């Protein structure tokens, strides 16, 4: 993959920046003598004034301390009903990247938060554009807690790489490591298996909450379309799409 990295000082959201400026950027950066398809545009912000999480969530990040960036990619031949594959690839690549810097195991809290223990170190927001029945392009927003030492928002369980290792991490080197992992995992046929092997609370009885109640269930699997499969204490299977159920941590 050919990556074009753009550093900016401040924006409201790197995902939104790519939505409004990414088309022009990738057209001018195309090099048909090297690749028949556009390169991957990566925009990295020192600070986001309105960092986006899933739904109405926001992302707390101290200026100049973390990695807040978005990627514009152009998947080839991924049907719209298989778009969860992008989540699998990105999540696994982030876990592998983090484990090169720390001894702890990184896990994936369905669908796409990265956890270390019971604490969240990274969030992902993927927004796809369709062309017919396939994905035309995807914007992948990533907020990774790197060197922040104190979190002031009411987020319940954030953690940073610094808090886990006691050391400052070079953010440019960390980004390079992730992009290499992303390229490697995207070419690997086992990414869906690796995603499931890394699922947070997989095979364990845990507390969940849906729109009607709280209940205890065991996480069994994530289906290819991204739905979560739980089995409750009565042995009943429960299938949930994104935002229909949440962990109670």
| Arithmetic mean pLDDT | 89
Model regions low in confidence, pLDDT < 50 over at least 5 residues? 24-37
**Helical amount:** 10-25%
How is the largest sheet built, in terms of strand order? 1-2-3-7-6-5-4
Subunit organisation of the chains: single chain
Describe this structure in words.
The protein is an alpha+beta fold and 249 residues long. It has five helices and twelve strands. The protein has helices at 14-28, 84-98, 161-165, 171-186, 191-197; strands at 3-11, 40-48, 67-73, 106-109, 113-116, 119-131, 134-144, 205-210, 214-222, 228-232, 237-240, 245-247. Strands 1-2-3-7-6-5-4 form a seven-stranded mixed sheet, sandwiched between helices. A hairpin with a 2-residue loop joins strand 5 (113-116) and strand 6 (119-131). Helix 2 (84-98) crosses helix 4 (171-186). It is globular. The N and C termini lie far apart (38 Å). Residues 24-37 have low confidence and may be disordered.
Write the layout of secondary structure elements.
Layout: E1 3-11, H1 14-28, E2 40-48, E3 67-73, H2 84-98, E4 106-109, E5 113-116, E6 119-131, E7 134-144, H3 161-165, H4 171-186, H5 191-197, E8 205-210, E9 214-222, E10 228-232, E11 237-240, E12 245-247
Parallel strand pairs: 1-2
Antiparallel strand pairs: 2-3, 3-7, 4-5, 5-6, 6-7, 8-9, 8-12, 9-10, 10-11
Helix pairs in contact: 2-4, 2-5
């Amino acid at each position: 993959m050919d990556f074009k990295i753009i550093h900016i000082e401040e924006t409201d959201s790197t995902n939104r920046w790519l939505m409004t400026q990414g088309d022009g950027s990738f057209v001018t950066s195309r090099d048909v003598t090297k690749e028949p398809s556009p390169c991957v545009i990566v925009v990295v912000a020192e600070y986001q004034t309105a960092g986006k999480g899933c739904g109405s969530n926001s992302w707390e990040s101290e200026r100049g301390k973390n990695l807040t960036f978005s990627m514009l990619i152009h998947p080839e031949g991924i049907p719209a009903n298989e778009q969860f594959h992008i989540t699998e690839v990105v999540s696994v690549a982030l876990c592998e990247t983090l484990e090169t810097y720390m001894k702890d195991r990184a896990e994936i809290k369905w669908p796409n938060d990265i956890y270390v223990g019971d604490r969240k170190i990274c969030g992902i927001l993927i927004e796809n554009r369709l062309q017919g029945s396939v994905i035309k392009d995807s914007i992948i927003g990533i907020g990774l807690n790197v060197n922040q030492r104190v979190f002031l928002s009411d987020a319940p369980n954030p953690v940073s790489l610094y808090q886990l290792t006691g050391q400052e991490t070079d953010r440019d080197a960390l980004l390079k490591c992730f992009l290499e992992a992303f390229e490697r995992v995207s070419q690997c046929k086992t990414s869906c298996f690796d995603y499931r092997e890394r699922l947070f609370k997989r095979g364990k009885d845990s507390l969940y909450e849906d729109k009607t109640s709280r209940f205890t269930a065991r996480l069994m699997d994530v289906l290819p379309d991204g739905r979560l499969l739980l089995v409750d204490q009565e042995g009943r299977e429960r299938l949930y799409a994104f935002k229909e159920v949440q962990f109670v941590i």
